[in-house]
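Work Package 3 (structural annotation) set out to generate three-dimensional models for the target panel prioritized at the project kickoff. During this period the team completed the workflow that converts sequence records into discrete structure tokens, so that structures can be stored uniformly alongside our sequence database. As a representative example, we reproduce one entry of 274 residues exactly as it appears in the project archive.
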Amino acid sequence: MVAPPDNAQPDKAPPQDDLLWARSLHYSHSGSPGLFGISVGVRQGEILALTGPRGSGKTTLLRCLSGQLVAEQGEVWFNSVPVHTMGALARERLRRDRFGWIGPEPRLLPELKVWENAALPLLIAGASHRAAKTSACEWLDRLDIGGFAHNRPGALTWAESQRVALARALVNEPAVIFADEPTAPLHRAERALLMRTLTTAARSHEITVLLATHDEETAAVADRRIDLVDGRPAGTAAATAATATAAASVASGSPSASASAETPEDNAACSLSA
């Protein structure tokens, strides 16, 4: 297990203006590192893009922030409530009542009608059949697939199924939507429609969106972005790699390596003395 940073302060209350906040998250997959001390804060109504290549930690971070995974080290807070100390049932209720999720695959239930798939979070939460159907059909209409409400998912194209998945994520008007590569399997026009609906809903209902994507056009809709590399923010990862390389070179006794390990201050001093 990775040791926490020396300055870690467990259970320190998050900033009041952050709806979702995490500090020093560490997670590994069967011994393989996944996250290295990532900290992030997101305000209500903000759209944050998490970008980076495959294997950079985007999905792992989303799953830790949404309570699907419990980090080995670190804290996750939602609305000033510590998610990292919740039991499994409490985290499940939080995901059901306050969070929405859409991934790269629709994962619709084939035995249910389209509107029932979209209404599933409300039906599970105990909403009336009529109210759940009304809300689901409203979102399906916004996504231009209301005409398929009484069909089974097998009658839909992949792109149409992904729109149903988005309707399902939005139907209970969650506080936060976690979108994990939601446009990955879609053509450009379908990507644009999906993201337009998601961003419009986020702006009108003050929904916070955490969007994991490797697509630049999709990331462009965000208010802010964090680039991940090997489980760290890109700048931190680059600095860590450079430090490790310099340290290894110095240990090997290479004169050129020692020179390359000079700090910017050293180079500036040399320039001035010249």
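The chain is about 40% helix and 20% strand.
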